[in-house]
Amino acid sequence: MIKTGIVGATGYTGYELTQLLARHPQARLVWATSESSAGKRISDLYPSPDDTRLIRFDDAPLAQADVIFFCLPHAASMEAVARARAAGVRAIDLSADFRLSDPQVYERWYATPHTQTDLLKSAVYGLCEVNRENIAGAELVANPGCYPTSVNLGLWPLARAGALGPFIIADSKSGVSGAGRKLRLGSHFVEINENMVPYSIGYAHRHIAEMEMILGRHVPDVQITFSPHLIPVNRGILSTLYVTLDPGLSEQNVRDIYRQAYEHEPFIHLLPSGQTATLRHTVNTNRVAIGVTPLPRPGQWIITASEDNLLKGASGQAVQNLNLMFGLEETAGLL
Amino acid sequence: MIKTGIVGATGYTGYELTQLLARHPQARLVWATSESSAGKRISDLYPSPDDTRLIRFDDAPLAQADVIFFCLPHAASMEAVARARAAGVRAIDLSADFRLSDPQVYERWYATPHTQTDLLKSAVYGLCEVNRENIAGAELVANPGCYPTSVNLGLWPLARAGALGPFIIADSKSGVSGAGRKLRLGSHFVEINENMVPYSIGYAHRHIAEMEMILGRHVPDVQITFSPHLIPVNRGILSTLYVTLDPGLSEQNVRDIYRQAYEHEPFIHLLPSGQTATLRHTVNTNRVAIGVTPLPRPGQWIITASEDNLLKGASGQAVQNLNLMFGLEETAGLL
Amino acid sequence: MIKTGIVGATGYTGYELTQLLARHPQARLVWATSESSAGKRISDLYPSPDDTRLIRFDDAPLAQADVIFFCLPHAASMEAVARARAAGVRAIDLSADFRLSDPQVYERWYATPHTQTDLLKSAVYGLCEVNRENIAGAELVANPGCYPTSVNLGLWPLARAGALGPFIIADSKSGVSGAGRKLRLGSHFVEINENMVPYSIGYAHRHIAEMEMILGRHVPDVQITFSPHLIPVNRGILSTLYVTLDPGLSEQNVRDIYRQAYEHEPFIHLLPSGQTATLRHTVNTNRVAIGVTPLPRPGQWIITASEDNLLKGASGQAVQNLNLMFGLEETAGLL
Amino acid sequence: MIKTGIVGATGYTGYELTQLLARHPQARLVWATSESSAGKRISDLYPSPDDTRLIRFDDAPLAQADVIFFCLPHAASMEAVARARAAGVRAIDLSADFRLSDPQVYERWYATPHTQTDLLKSAVYGLCEVNRENIAGAELVANPGCYPTSVNLGLWPLARAGALGPFIIADSKSGVSGAGRKLRLGSHFVEINENMVPYSIGYAHRHIAEMEMILGRHVPDVQITFSPHLIPVNRGILSTLYVTLDPGLSEQNVRDIYRQAYEHEPFIHLLPSGQTATLRHTVNTNRVAIGVTPLPRPGQWIITASEDNLLKGASGQAVQNLNLMFGLEETAGLL
Fold this sequence. Notes:
Number of domains of chain A: 2
Largest sheet of chain A: 7 strands, mixed
Largest interface: B-D, 41 and 42 residues
Oligomer: homotetramer
CATH class of the largest domain in chain A: Alpha Beta
Distance between the termini of chain A: 18 Å
Number of strands of chain A: 13
CATH superfamily of the largest domain in chain A: Dihydrodipicolinate Reductase, domain 2
Strand order of the largest sheet of chain A: 8-9-7-10-13-12-11
Structural class of chain A: alpha/beta
Radius of gyration of chain A: 19 Å
Order of helices and strands of chain A: EHEHEHEHHEHEHEHEHEEHEEEH
């Protein structure tokens, strides 16, 4: 049994991890921290019979864990991860702190300097289907952002095949759990129920950096227009992706590119021709569903990609990363 | 044109009043206050084109108004109302401060002493269908609570007719706007969406006092078991009322009692035999819908009553009270 | 009082019209038809106290009405409208049958021949803000589609000013009432709640024709990529519009173009800089809200436009058209 | 591996079973039937990657299964179950056909004669926590109804202890999946979203018979007032139970009664004093959560009980029954 700790277990991603680990056949939780709720049980905070007692991070026996999940806000996470690494414990960081390989890009988008640039060099971006080999041996995995997972997995086969043009529009829609459990008027039931809210549109959302980093490996000068929208559901992201491909490609060609990339992937559900991804394809699963729709003008396509933002978009992918890091069956605890 | 002011215009009931007054043919808003948002416009706080500029209560020209609506928390309201009355302006108070005629009952339920007991003596409980005559001449109207309006209007005809037994169970379900716009975890979208939450059950909710006061006029030793539940809708209250009536009454007798009480009431929708009240009967209207269902054991009945908690349960009834106070058509601005 | 009839009063748009007319100060309903529910009252079909008795179209006294609203499916509507016009009664058609001035375009998108091409020549497209002058004298007004109203009003000022490039992406999201009251699995609560569904994407949705017709007047070879999505709300459309404008335009220039077009429009809410349109801006109103967001690359913009699909997107605009046709205040019954 | 078949796999309970079996470590699906969709795959009917091909019941190799789940409408199920039993295969019936031990009671509530009364004698009512011993050896298990599971498990300890009075009010609220996938206006998104609908109130709902049968074992002349309400969530039942208990019982006494009955039950979550059951306690789990609330009058109590109607209220309990019947760990596949 792999022994795990969770730092910051009371937000939505931390709680989701506790639930995933409770069902995992080869991993278990040995401690969980919360600064604001230390001393309480999870059952005091969530409608759950989980009696795990929360402790402060300073009191956490780091070295009792084989791996630690960090579910902290960005900037706060990098110091905490450094302590775990100093103690020799492997780390999976769900914050943004180790996702962007270039610390200057990090500083530009997150408006704070990166204080662990050496550690950053050792971090592996944990987009499992893209980086599987590097993740296996990693000591520190940066778990990808929720929106970028849908966009990057939706487009990466096309990028890698050299078929993807640089101008990409990602019109993404997310459930409200993506905004976290923190109280703010925009997450108040009455404000978002029967409503739909575009936010941070116009090259303003930090997740663009992860899309540029991954897709930019294969698409020089990639330019991403990313428009997130909040929709009145608890969970799920749907990205409607408007892309330009090599105009000579038929639908069969495009589908073959996806098939080659993903045919052995347990968590990618490539939809049949004529179907589009919906939230229901993936909510409560660790899957990404992908639909391919041609437009009448040659070279113009719509890719639809959906995921559960708390699973494949966060805690599910974190467990998938754990499985890869420790040589377990990749799907363990995730079906 | 009746000139009105609103004290506390940025919560849900205050904002609802601004919208109702904008459509009212014989009343208009002359000023609106907010301590926390003074200087801002309503359009800064709500997705609305309403450019009304908010001021502080201390800066409000009280006497420019013919009547002032108070949308303040309980305890805070009584002093503010006293200032308006001292200035000679009529008042409609949407808080609980002037609803309970006995200040000791107020103190018991609201855990704060009543500081305006003289004023309290002059207050009229603004349940329009029950107190219409007294409201017409009132200088101070206490607008009823949302839950009590559904329960009291649902049962008052039976009580007045001497047919209602003392043991009443009110299983009530309310939309989330009833909890106000204040941030709290229980109103967070993810916490209440796809959920349903009983709260303050077991003789704990303050609104019981208004039900005991009104129904107790005709039913000695009335004993109300009141169970509020939060449901994932924005607006609306449905009360499922389990009552014991004189066992000799047929359904026709019971329906006649309602008909006599309500047949000329513009805002009471007595449903045909076999139908039950739903939220949809009343949401976005100032109506109360009432359904009558017999049980097989003689004398056992279920009354279903629904209303929009922000309209008939708060701001709509407040405008209805304004209409009565100023001799306008009772339905003005409310159809 | 303008006397009106409604043909097909039991769907969502027909019912909405009955409710709007009940509140209209200068128009009233004199009869309403339903083939499937003739003999019943509206209160038998909706949770409403409206006791209007429904009749069959063949029994409708057409000439008693000054104007008839037609809320029928496309293809069925054109014959019914012809009967009204033969009887000399003015008509407002909410179907698609008279929207497209070219009958061949109609036939291509709706897969049925147009049988009333003479009548079609006299029809005026009832997009009030664009065609106000022609509507005033019209005998037959074709009420616009719900999606096209949001897209066309969102972009028309830019098109008319010669600033709009031909490649337009409209990523639109609609509440479920837009799919009508007909039973189908895709409208079943469990299937759409907590879900989001793209449908008819890839140059497949018929409403594209209305966008091409209106925007194409000023933008030769306009090419619209239109992606409708079903979201779990009752009412409302949000269109996120990705457009290319003359690269020399500043945000101030663009806002000036909108202001010139719309500054006296009672139902257009142009949002301040930095704001985006949400459903809440317009649901339960006859308004369209428009937000303008620049992208970093010169000439690239996002326009957000929202409306209530049953009001400005259907029955509200139909009443606005009635007001224009009969010389009433344009906002009568709509505030 | 236990081999299972599902008859009627395309409704919500049948589909849920396919998903539970896919994750079950010791059971697997060998065939699944659908009369209306034979020849199609599950992935053609649900947004799911499940490629199980559906067959007609007549083509199902009954004897290849160790046990068959029947997810058919009542009346249709009894004949199908008889065929399985004739082939010597064990059966778990999710319909009402074998739940009521008295065929006359069945006929009274379901308005159809029972044609398999011999088989009925051998059927065991599959309320696991109550009938565990009988289920282990059963050849035919009648899986309980969704509402009765919440009411019976919520009250059975009190009934068995002789503490429960005969007059019980069960005010129950259910998600829409409880009404099935069949199309009807009452399940249309627009009709139920932002709405709440009492239905079949007044001693009219068939599930009363199961409550009377189970609670009546210990409470002579039990009289149940059962009021189901439809609420706008996909899954979950919350029953608010108004009961009279022996007036000498303290809260501690009552909690002890529950603890004795349930302390080793893996799927019963007895909530701490002061807490009430919510949907969120149990949705997406096989648990029942139970809260105990005293009222001020001696002997008056409110019990709140919640469950997921598709899991503990249907398919989850069916798998729990399978586990019991085949001597597996009772929680296998259900955590």
